[in-house]
Fold this protein.
Amino acid sequence: MDAHYAVIYTEKRKEAKEAAEYVKKLLSERGASVEIYSATELMGKKLPDAIHYLIALGGDGTILKSVQALSDSETPILGINFGHGGFLMEVDSNLLEEAIRRLLDGKYHLEKVMMISAVVGDEKISDALNEIYITSRSLGKTLEFSIYKKTELAKITADGLIISTPIGSTAYAYSAGGPIVDDELEAVVLVPVCPLTHSRPIVLSLKEKIKIDIFSEYGVQILIDGFVKRDFEERSMQITVEKSENAVNFVRLGLGESFVRRVKKKLG
C-alpha cells in the first residue's frame, strides 16, 4: 500500500513553500501520494484520516498547528526548521533532502511525547503539546488561582498562569521564569505570570489530576498552544489538568538526542 503524506508549510517563509513542492517531488518519485497545506488553512480543521506521515516545514508554530489538525494522534510527524526558534523541529532546512531520504528508507525511530488535557466541567477543551495559558478576558486584570492536588497546595494572584508540559518547558514557560524539565518526566510546570503574591514556578507530577479554581471579575480566557482559544464569562470556574490519553509521535533521525539539542539551543 502506498504511503499518504501531508506536507504542511508556513506562509511566513517563501522558501518553506518552495521546499514543500520539492518534498512532494521527492516523495512522489517513490510512489507516495502527497497533499500540501499551508499552516493557516488548517486552523480549526482536521486532516484526512488516511494520512500516514506528516512533514512540517516551518517553526514551532507550524508543529503546534499540525498537531491540532491531526485526525489520528498516532500519525508520525517530521519537523524541518524554516523558522526562528524551531525547538520542536528535528533538523534544520539545510538537511531537508537527507531527512526525507532517511524517512523513506525507514532509517528513523519514533519518540512518543506526552500531551496534557484541559477539562472544564465535563468538557475537554483540547490537548496541549506545549502549554495551557490562563488569563483574564480583560487585558491587564489579575486572576486568583487556587491549586489543588488532593488538598490545596497554593493560592496565587497573577496576570496569568502557564501550565506547561516538559517539552513546552523551553517555550513560553521558560521565558516567564520557569525551569527546563526533562522530557522523560510525566509532570507539568505551573508558572505564574507577573504574580502579585510571593509565588514561584511549581513542578507537579501527573500521577494524579491537578485541579485549579480560578476567580476573575472579568471572565477567563484559556489559550492552548497559542492557537486554541476559549472564553468563559463565569467569574469563577475550575479547570482540571491531566495527562492526555493521546501523545505525539515525533520522527527522530538519529542526528542527536532531541532534549539535549533543544536545551543547548535555548541556552545558546
The chain has a mean pLDDT of 93.
